[in-house]
Amino acid sequence: MRRFLDHGSGLPTSPNVHEVAQAVDPSCEVVYIDNDPVVAAHGKMGLAEDPSTTAVLEMDMRETEKIFESPQVRHLLRKDEPVAALFVSVLHCIRDADDPWDLVRRVASQMPAGSYMVISQLASDDPALRTDITNFMAAATGNSWGEVRSLSQVNRFFEGLELLEVDDQQPVEVSLWHPDSDLAPRQRSQEWIEYGGVAIIKATSTKRT
């Protein structure tokens, strides 16, 4: 996988997606998407040293058609090679009323066969806790928060996709997904977790021009 589309990328960190990918293959290309102008400005400053393989779009990730019509993303898809679309810890920023499941479907429909969808979000099967965390985060972010969802709601993001399994589970708490240390993963919280998975797009009927 040499092409990545990072939705709701947030303020740059290190190592960021392009740094991790390009450490394996310097030809890897990454497009970051975020609707926050501060994030976009910081991202563009940090990526100025290599604009040929990295780009930042100041766009709302819900504007799928606009994103896929942008020169940066059209360039990313130019060879019709697989792309990894990342929705990491970001879909809980979208309210149910805005249908984040449809957003994921629309993005998947634009991707070449063999592409990957990487999805995770805050989840809990305790309805009262979901409401409490959602209300707290909405107040803390000036009402720019979406929803903490149940595990079954997160599972819906993967409908129509072929999930990769971890220990016969799909999706899973993200700390169980190929831990990068010899330490045993912590006991899963019974209250709330970051929950998600990785899935492959086997086929798509959408033709890009």
UniProtKB/TrEMBL annotation:
Name this polypeptide is given: SAM-dependent methyltransferase
One Pfam family, short name: Methyltransf_19
SUPFAM superfamilies attached to this UniProt entry: S-adenosyl-L-methionine-dependent methyltransferases
Top-level lineage group: Bacteria
